[in-house]
Design brief:
This protein is of the alpha+beta class. The chain has helices at residues 28-45, 52-73, and strands at residues 14-21, 82-90, 93-101. A three-stranded antiparallel sheet has the order 1-2-3, covered by helices on one side. A hairpin with a 2-residue loop joins strand 2 (82-90) and strand 3. The longest helix is centred in the middle third of the chain and has 22 residues, at 52-73. It is elongated.
């Protein structure tokens, strides 16, 4: 279901994120920072008409693929992983997403 405002075009109102880099992984901190940036970019670039659940799923999938690729290409980032929690507010709806990205 897409989020809609009555007076303006549909938009995501708030994206709140918490990311925790896996302590045992060399690239944990970088994974957390990249996950936050990529998730916000992914959510803001996709049209809201697709609906927040689909936007969030697509953004998380993109983050996961990006981190996995970096992990494979750079030996210094071996085990790059993070936990990402997101709260997306759109009009009167709240969407909660939580994932281990690697």
């Amino acid at each position: 279901m897409a989020c809609r405002r009555s007076t303006t075009r549909p938009a995501i109102d708030v994206i709140a994120l918490v990311a925790y880099g896996m302590r045992g992984a060399k690239g944990g901190r970088m994974a957390a920072e990249l996950a936050v940036r990529r998730f916000v970019e992914g959510c803001t670039l996709i049209p809201i008409t697709r609906g927040v659940p689909q936007i969030g799923a697509h953004a998380l999938d993109s983050v996961n693929r990006w981190l996995h690729t970096l992990d494979r290409l750079d030996a210094q980032l071996n085990g790059m992983a993070c936990i990402l929690g997101a709260l997306v507010l759109c009009s009167r709806q709240a969407h909660l997403l939580h994932v281990l990205a690697r």
